[in-house]
Amino acid sequence: MHIVVLIKQTFDTEEKIVVRDGQVTSDGVKLIINPYDEYALEEALRLREKHGGSVTAIACGPESCAEALRTALAMGADEAIRIEPSPGDDSASIAAAIAACIRPLAPDLLLAGLFAVDTGAGSVALQTAERLGLPHVSAAVRVEISGGKLIADRDVEGDVATVEVPLPALVTAQQGLNEPRYPSLPGIMKAKRKPLRVTSRAELASGPTAPVTERLSIEGVPPRSAGKRLGGGSPAELAAELARLLREEAKVL
């Protein structure tokens, strides 16, 4: 089997988000593989160990995301591809680039994380599958390959649904699918010799695709004001004062 895993480099979940001049600054920030993508990568490695084949990790991003791809190689991926970003990229243009990169690889299975922890979005993998004409199984907590078909258990609001789709297909990984391994020292050393290819947008078969959305601004969350304690009146008076504060200050009524 040839399995492709989509990787995104994100801020460490413990990092503080700082907005400066209308942009999120990454100065001094620790960057990691999106945790849900780690579940996808681990599952790809387990399926390769069981069925044979190879695993390719793909990311679209700046030169710094090569570190995340090297981590994927150290965990056990066979090769990695970094697609160079384009100004103004949105989920649609990134998905178009990833689909153009994946199409000639003709993978048997495409794996990705359920969503990215930095934006809370999970649409790039879905748009990629749509462009490639692949069926999609979301929020998988168990994956099995049998008889040329994929059988998966999906997390559905606290319950589990079992589905079966033909291959090739996309699976997005939910927390609980597995426990990702740590890169071993031999794996880290081998990763330095594994291929990491860089692809420009111009090299892709479809060429660059224009974004369909535009980000106008980014604003930080305003500092939380001190709480207020109401007292010294009857329950009716306190309720009236609370309603006034919610209406005039909190602007929620």
Sequence of strands across the biggest β-sheet = 11-10-9-12-8-1-6-7-13
Q: Which structural class fits the helix and strand makeup?
A: alpha/beta
Residues in helices, as a percent range: 25-40%
Number of helices: 6
Distance between the termini: 57 Å
Low-confidence stretches: none
Radius of gyration: 22 Å
Count the strands? 13
Overall average pLDDT: 91
- Based on CA inertia axes, which overall geometry fits? globular
Write down the secondary-structure element order.
EEEEEHEHEHEHEEEEHEH
Biggest β-sheet, characterized? 9 strands, mixed
Provide the β-strand percentage band. 25-35%
Record the SSE blueprint.
Layout: E1 2-6, E2 9-11, E3 19-20, E4 23-24, E5 31-33, H1 35-51, E6 54-60, H2 66-75, E7 79-83, H3 91-102, E8 109-113, H4 124-132, E9 136-146, E10 149-156, E11 159-166, E12 169-173, H5 185-191, E13 196-199, H6 235-248
Parallel strand pairs: 1-6, 1-8, 6-7, 7-13, 8-12, 9-12
Antiparallel strand pairs: 2-5, 3-4, 9-10, 10-11
Helix pairs in contact: 2-5, 3-4
